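User: Before I run my own analysis I want an independent prediction to cross-check against. Here's the chain; please return only the structure tokens and, at the end, one sentence I can use as a sanity check.
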Amino acid sequence: MNGKIIFITGGARSGKSTFALAQASKSDGRKAYIATAQALDEEMRQRIENHKRLRGDEWITYEEPLKIAALIEEIKDRHSVILLDCLTLWLSNVMHAKVKIENEIEQFISSLMTQRSSRVYIVSNEVGMGIVPLNEMARKFRDMAGTLNQKVAAVADEVYMVVAGIPMKIKREEK
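Assistant: Structure tokens:
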């Protein structure tokens, strides 16, 4: 299978993860799911368990809140499909870890550029369409998420925006 990057963005609870899983599940071969969420409270633990049930047994799950670039490098040749959910949760994890965010983003983009053996689906939230956040940390997160999404969209072969459960293709693979 030729590698391909499919980027899926949208608002919270828009259906983007469901769409990504449905599309990725159509592919043959070994499937990897990179989960960036951390079960820091009971509500999040329930969300994670629900996502696991929806995926079923055909998916190998890798729970990695920080080092997604290294993980993609490690598993890219073992899986036909990689689904990364969710990029904005990863960004939040990186910000809280107090590491150099720009370096982490560049490593991630580089891992996508050199990975061409798997079909990679990347899910992210579109967070910049609301009001300007009141505090500096929230504004920095919004700005970094926008920059990250732009960088991923630039290297992606296809980009979808999901609104109210309806996926809209906004970038097509160039031939």
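Sanity check: Strands lie at 4-10, 31-35, 59-63, 81-85, 119-125, 158-163, 166-171.
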